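Hi V.,

You were right to ask for the full record rather than a summary. Here it is.
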Amino acid sequence: MKIVVERKEEKFVLEARNEQGNTLIMDADEKIGGKGKGMRPMQLLLAAAGGCSSIDVLLILSKQKQEVKSYKVEVEGEKEKVEDHSEFRDIRLSFYLEGNIDPQKALNAVRLSVEKYCSVSKTLEKTAKVSYAVFVNGKEVK
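Predicted structure:
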């Protein structure tokens, strides 16, 4: 796997490109001169956790013939200063699904993703507590 990051504009507007040619724009915090033109790298970590889990969850539910009409995951992270850098200490994923879905199957799919399959979550859990909640058709699944 290879990613190339190239500066596109002064000061910190960067483009990341993968081997297939797909791109995304990154930028620094406006406090240090960023222009607000892209996600900051720590935001990308949260986005990656949400994306990785989403692929797992949607794949599992598809294999179980669950009809997902609407899907969204919100990812929140709390950082802590450690020496000269920050690390996530708490990450919470909230999954919102609508459709003809068995709530227990949705909960199990999320559990399998976050606790077993999602490489991003498994990497982040080395420094952060990763937790989740699941909502099916507006009701939290316990």
